[in-house]
Design brief:
Layout (H helix, E strand, L loop, with lengths): L3 E7 L4 E4 L5 E14 L5 E11 H10 L5 E14 L5 E14 L5 E3 L8 E3 L21
Parallel strand pairs: 4-6
Antiparallel strand pairs: 1-3, 1-5, 2-3, 3-4, 5-6, 7-8
Length: 141
């Protein structure tokens, strides 16, 4: 069985391309924090190269960006290639079967602040002063 589940954040914007046979794919890198600190007290992250195909690739390219939090369900695949210097290399990619977008829709990248975080596009809930009291007897359940 070859299954992997990851929850982490994109380290850069996704990169999309098309194979010579016309199949869309998107690549991105995800940082997954370990649940413990190292001996120096620093939190450590592991980095995974992720590839998505076809419609999933299109959705990821359209909606994900650096810093997006994602949940990924997929498998690990070994890839061998020759680098620019002619040296044979091996890498391991996560081939995503499912990608869950975990960053709220109301959040967008703060392009002016670089990678300092996100700012809400609009308030996610009305201010408490605008809320109307509800009588429990009026509820249908």
């Amino acid at each position: 069985m070859n299954k992997i589940i990851l929850i982490g954040n994109l380290t850069r914007d996704p990169e999309s391309n098309t194979t010579s046979s016309g199949v869309n794919f998107t690549r991105f890198n995800v940082a997954v924090n370990r649940p413990f600190a190292n001996s120096s007290g620093e939190r450590v992250a592991d980095y995974f190269d992720v590839i998505c195909w076809r419609q999933l690739a299109d959705r990821c390219a359209k909606y994900l960006y650096k810093g997006s939090k994602v949940g990924i369900n997929g498998s690990v695949q070994r890839r061998q290639y020759e680098d620019r210097d002619g040296i044979k290399r091996t890498s391991f990619d996560v081939v995503a079967d499912e990608v869950e977008f975990l960053t709220p829709k109301t959040m967008s990248p703060n392009r002016d602040a670089g990678s300092q975080g996100y700012v809400p596009d609009e308030p996610s809930a009305p201010p408490i002063s605008d809320m109307q009291p509800v009588d429990n007897d009026d509820l249908p359940f």
